[in-house]
Amino acid sequence: MKVLVVDDSKSIRQIEKRYLTGMGYEVLEAANGKEALQVLEDNPDIALILLDWHMPVMNGFEFLKAVRQDPRWNNVKIMMVTTENQEKCVIDAIMAGANEYLMKPFDQEMLESKIRWLMEEAL
């Protein structure tokens, strides 16, 4: 199964990639929402997106709204993984179509349990 990690921090992408690869996922990366849209276009079989909020070019919230407006990606699960912890932002993301929300910093166990729950829900 393919997962797209979208974060402007290369170190965060590497950490998430290491955890996800250990779980058996194939991991693709993008540094911002605009890059992520292209990766999604090129890989229509992506099942899960881990999405940061604060990025240059196109932020995570803009990307989330763009993905959720396209019916081709209705089945893609999206988890916000961000330092953004304002209650309004969390609610806005869920209302815009995010399936789950994980605050940074996180550890491997937190990330893996959220992903397992999210992907079991999809079955």
UniProtKB/TrEMBL annotation:
SUPFAM superfamilies: CheY-like (SSF52172). Coiled coil: none annotated. The modification 4-aspartylphosphate is found at residue 52. The keyword Glycosyltransferase does not apply. Transmembrane segments: none annotated. It comes from Thermodesulfatator autotrophicus. The keyword Transferase applies. GO terms for molecular function: kinase activity. This is Histidine kinase. SMART domains: REC (SM00448). InterPro entries: Bact_response_regulator, CheY-like_superfamily, Sig_transdc_resp-reg_receiver. Residues 2-119 form the Response regulatory domain. Keywords: Kinase, Phosphoprotein, Transferase. GO terms for biological process: phosphorelay signal transduction system. PANTHER family: RESPONSE REGULATORY DOMAIN-CONTAINING PROTEIN (PTHR44591:SF3), STRESS RESPONSE REGULATOR PROTEIN 1 (PTHR44591).
